[in-house]
Fold:
Amino acid sequence: MNLKAEKYPHARILAIESSCDETAAAVLEDGSRILSNVVATQIELHAKYGGVFPEMASRQHILTIYPVVEDALNQAHLSLKELDGIAVTRGPGLAGSLVVGMNMAKALALGSSLPLIGINHLEGHLYSAWIRMDETQPYTPPEFPLIALIVSGGHSSLILMKGHHEYERLGATLDDAAGEAFDKVARLLGLPYPGGPSIQKAAEHGSTTAFAFPRARLEGTWDFSFSGLKTAVLRKVRAFEEEGKVLPVDDMAASFQQAVVDALTEKTFLAAEQFGARHILVAGGVSANRALRNAFTSQTRFQVHIPPLKYCTDNAAMIAEAGYFRFINGQRDPLDMDVFPNWPLV
Ligand code: KG4
Ligand code: ZN
Structure:
C-alpha cells in the first residue's frame, strides 16, 4: 500500500459518526493528534426500552448533530476552511441514524469544497489502534501482519491485516455478536442496558467458575458462536426461577463473561500463531471489557494493541483516524455516496 503521508503534512480531518446511538464528531491533525473528540450519547434515552430504539435514535441524532459538530470545531479552535477533509461513517449501522451524519457531512463538504471520505464503521474501530494517545509517551504503532479482533454490539470478526487496508476476513460470529450476547444475557439477569458494562460490574463480585457455561470451539474454522452460551444462561435462569431460588446474578455474570473471554482469546491467539502475526489488535465496544483486556495483556507472546476505553465504544476519533489513512491514500467520495456499504469487512 502506497501511503502518501508526506504529501499531506498536518492534514486535518473532521469526522462524523452516527451509526447507532452516539452522535459524535472529532478533529484529527497529522493522523495522530486528536484536537477534539465530542460524543453525545443516547444511552439514557434507550435504557428504558432495554436496547436501541432506532426511530428515536435517528430523531435524537437530528437534534444533536449540529451542536456536536460545532463543539468539535470549537474545541479544536478551527474553522471549516482550515480543514483538509471530512470523513463520515458510511455503515454498517442503523440506516436512519447513518443518514443524519452522512447528510451533515455532505452539506459541510458541499459548502466548503472539502473532500468527502466515506468510512466503514468497523474499519474505524480497527484504526482506533493508530490514534496516538499521549504525545509524551513512546508510541509503537501496530505492525503487519496482524490479527485483528473486532468485538462490538453488531459484529465479532477475526481479520488478518497484511497492510493498511488489506484485509482477509478469517471468521465471524455465526449468530450473536459478542456485545449482543452481553446485552441479551444482561437482560436475562435483570441488569440494565447497555449489558456489557453491567455484566462487568456484577462479575467483579462473582466467581468465574461457579457455572460451567459452554465455549463453542467450532474446530477447523475461525468463526465464533454465542447463541449456545446465551441459551445455557437462559436455562439456568429458568431453573432458578422454577425452584423459587434467588438468582446468583454475580456468579452467573462472572461465569458468562469468562466463557466469552475464553472463546475470543483462544481463537485470536491461535490465529496469530498460525498466520505468523506478532501483533494483535482488539477493538470495538466489547474491547472495553476489563476481563478481556486483562486476558489479552497478561501474556507476552504477542504485542497487543487495545485502545483506551474512550476509543473502544463508538466515537468519531476512530473515524477520523481511518479517514486520515484513506485520505492520504487518495480516497475521495462523491456527494451522492450512499449509506450501507458492503466494503470492506462487513
Ligand atoms: O462498538 P460499540 O460501541 O457499538 C457497535 O458498533 O456496536 O459496541 C457496543 C457494544 C454493546 O453491546 C455493549 O454492551 C458492549 O459493546 N460493551 C461492553 C463493555 N462496554 C461496552 N461489553 C463488555 N464489557 C464492557 N465493559
Ligand atoms: Zn461500533
User: Anything to note?
Assistant: The chain has a mean pLDDT of 94. The chain is about 40% helix and 20% strand.
